[in-house]
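input
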Amino acid sequence: MEAIERNTGTRLAKRQAEELVERAAQDFDAFYDRPESAEAAANDKDLLVLSLDSKGIVMRQEHLREATRKAAESAQHKLDRRLSKGEKRDRKRMATVAAVYDLTPQPRQPDDILAELRPVRDTSMPRPRARNKRVWASVEKSAEAVTSEVFEEARRRDPECRRRWVVLVDGDRHQITRIRAEAKRRGLSKDVTLVVDFIHVLEYLWDAAWCFYEEGDKAVEAWVTERAFAILQGRSSEVAGGIRRSATKRGLPIDERKGADDCADYLIAKRSMLRYDQYLRCGLPIATGVIEGACRHLIVDRLDITGARWSVRGAEAILRLRSLRSSGDFDDYWRFHLEAEHARNHASRYAARPTLRVIPGGASS
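output
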């Protein structure tokens, strides 16, 4: 709005700007549904990495999902000017964030991973960079629909499944269930490797550690490092058993050993996705940094600003445009969008079908 007024002297109403943003994003799905939208990998040895996450967006009450909206309408606060414990002022609608990219395998050792976690990191062995990265998010579509889109994007890049598909997850069981169901539906259950983010595993280890050490005790770092190293060697079940035995031998009451039990339960439940010894030998990624960054860039930096309340259509349009920018596809999309607008508003009304000529710089004739 400021740019239009600065360059044209015309003041644009806020509602008009909102409608223009929604209109500008309307060809997003059609743009990526084109067969040529997927870039080919350099070779079949490159990994095809898929990742999913979710992030809440504060919505106007009428745009919440049905169950959340009913909970918001029925909620009663004890105080007028301040929230009591457990009360929520704002209700959120979850957006599903997705990423698909190519990655060159880089075999590593457990020591290499622990070295990267130190405050001063050795840069002599640079990490492989994600290539042909596409990130996007949707608050309008269901998590199942976005999961299907992720697999569809991967299939366009590797239609014959010649490459190794790696799906990075944060351990959420609903997310894992959706991914496995989609892989099974497409006959890819044996072709997809699920990997739980190692950083999430570390967080569980730290929660367990505070069951055995006082806050600030430096010995806790050695305890966590020792068990993290064992997990990276593929001994997650052994670590889980040791943590549970330690809590029992110390006679910790149930409330004081909760962190230890939660960690042990997590390691046992996810052990089939914690084979880090195999993943590292094969050069697979074991952290969800790309999707975490996508959550921050697409949602937090813009849709999570103080005081913002979103409609579904408005939030979806902003997410689409930010996704195009983050994926490096905005210029190509805008040319596609201009052609689509021309076809909708002009070519479809004439028998001769006049063609659109796109001039570099965004103009058209």
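quick obs: The chain has 15 helices and five strands.
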